[in-house]
Amino acid sequence: MLDEESFQVERCKDATIVSLGSEFDLLEGDLVKKAEDKLLEVVEDKDCSHLILDMANTRFFGSSFIESLVRVWNQLKTREHGSLQLCCLQSYCKEILEVTHLDNIWEVSDSREDALKRCTSSKI
Fold first, then answer.
1. Which of 59, 60, 66, 104 has the lowest CB atom count within 10 Å?
2. Which stretch of DSSP H or E encloses residue 61?
């Protein structure tokens, strides 16, 4: 069971921001499914067309989490101007996205503020 600190959801301007807490330090195994279920629950809300995922507390994720992000992205891209952004990535996680070229599909920002600016300044 996830506590409130582990998975925080907030609305800011046109975006929904999800922050993964310290429980998601190593995103593998059962945690991937828990994160995916929660993220899909968030994007079920029709008002969620811009999702910013704050991963400051995550040091590792692998292919199973990438698959989860693809499922979330598939939900979002059906909406007009739907976007998925990842922010505050630690170096290893950022490298995974760069090597797989997923940083060309999903926006990657160094901070929440940059991610929010990208959401509101242009409809992605």
1. 104
2. strand 60-61
